[in-house]
Amino acid sequence: MASPSGEIDYRSFLDKLWEAMPSDEFVAMVSSPAVLGNPLLRTQHFIGGTRWEKVSADEIVGWHQLRVPHQKYRDAALTEVAVKGHAHSTNQHWYRRIDGVWKFAGLSPDIRWSEYDFDKVFEEGREAFGDEVKGETAAVAVAVAAPAAAEANVVPATILETAAVEPTIV
Question: Which residues form the active site (predicted)?
Answer without folding.
Answer: 45, 70
